[in-house]
Amino acid sequence: MASSVAAFFSSVFLPEPLHNDAAGPEPDSKPDAVDEADASEVGEVEPEEEEAEPQDPAPGIREECAATAACAPFNHHFVHCTEKVTEGKGYPHEDCVEELCIVMHCVDNCLASRLFSKLS
Predict the structure, then answer these.
(1) Given this structure, which CATH class describes domain 58-119?
(2) For residues 106 and 100, what is the distance between their CA atoms, to the nearest angstrom?
(3) A single GO CC term, please (predicted)?
(4) What are the structural domain ranges in the chain?
């Protein structure tokens, strides 16, 4: 039974060789010769000039938005929570996910208008 299961899976997953019934030229045992002109062109590959990738303005704008009057209180609360949890003064299994979400929501709202005006 094991051999029939193996035969089934090999017939399903292993491709059978394809046969070409049309008579055609036999493949040469020797590789095609490369012209000297082609060989010289292969060696002379011109390096392509890499364009400087523009700087992403989003990280800088995020920092500016976190310091705005609208987001600063949320950011302060998140930093305070992080320090408290890192020092072990928080409740067991306490994390600052809620505070992080509030800060990111505020920062993303601020970022959206500023970022898209710079990208346009």
Answers:
(1) mainly alpha
(2) 10
(3) mitochondrial inner membrane
(4) 58-119
